[in-house]
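batch job 7 of whatever, protein = 2-hydroxyacid dehydrogenase
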Amino acid sequence: MSSESVSQRKIAFYDTKPYDRKYFDRAAETHNLQIEYHEFRLSKANATSVHGAQIVCVFVNDRIDRSCLEALGGLGVKLIALRCAGFNNVDLGAAKELGISVVRVPAYSPYSVAEHTVALLQTLNRKIHRAYNRVRELNFSLGGLVGFDLHGRTVGILGTGKIGKITAQIFRGYGCNVVAYDLYPDQEWSGKHKIEYTELETLLGSSDIVSLHLPLTPESYHLLNEQTISQMKKGAYLLNTSRGKLIDSAAVIAALKCGQLGGVALDVYEEEEGVFFEDHSETALQDDVLSRLLTFPNVLVTSHQAFLTEEALGAIAATTADSIDLFLDGKECPEERIVA
Ligand code: NAI
């Protein structure tokens, strides 16, 4: 192999965590790729760290804005491989202008996210998070731990793509009534699973639990805000394992304080960049909105971990390496992986 082809097969990898290395090292071996891992997130300020690589691999909180792309383009980068499904952190218009291709992993394990969503709800509903701590202090009392049966409750699913559909089907398995809202309803699927599509306002007004599974777009930004939260049933539960900016967090805090929301489970948060995925246990948390959210006993926050299963990590690494291989061979990726 020539030195040129060796450098072509080099990948600058950002926001690396130990679990990334485990799965990507395996994929790199299979696909003969050389990965240079960086623990920091990629931005314009540190773009020279690509060190001659034509391909960079990034995650949800690397900020690939126009200035970063311009710097990367100037350094000879040709491909951004997102090791996630969402691509709201990349300026796609700028990438196209600069001739930098962008690929993603459109689906890895929708089960991972859907199952985490239901795990969050049931932890919150059945107060497992409180019971866990209580029992460890040898307090075996049950006061304050009353939950509700999911059976017979109405669940509203916003966004019935890959993850929303699996989540809806899990809730059907519990014996819930499921209603759904999507810009592009899939009537065949809804008929098969006895799920009814409704307008957003109707869904919000009839659901005991509302779960978000749509992407972040200009249209969906703060879809759950003061007005739409006020349309929800009093005491309803809100679940978000999709993207933080779908929810106006200040409106959620106000609704929790007056009991309009009975519980909130979040795997994503609108200002998670720089906070989630990191250990801040030795420093003061600077985000007062997140700090306030964490004080509610009926709020459960996980750190964007819904995707974190063996199956999902393996599939992410395999698909990313395959996309890179296709790119290096001058072949087209499957269309659903191409975002620019
Ligand atoms: P998908 O593309 O299969 O489905 C999205 C659905 O939302 C589509 O049916 C689409 O028609 C609908 N939609 C889009 N904009 C809408 C709008 N404004 N109003 C109503 N419906 C709208 O996506 P998938 O794979 O189901 O993922 C959903 C989201 O989950 C992703 O966009 C991503 O943000 C998030 N996600 C979170 C992860 C985590 O670890 N927490 C991991 C993977 C994805």
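notes: The radius of gyration is 21 Å.
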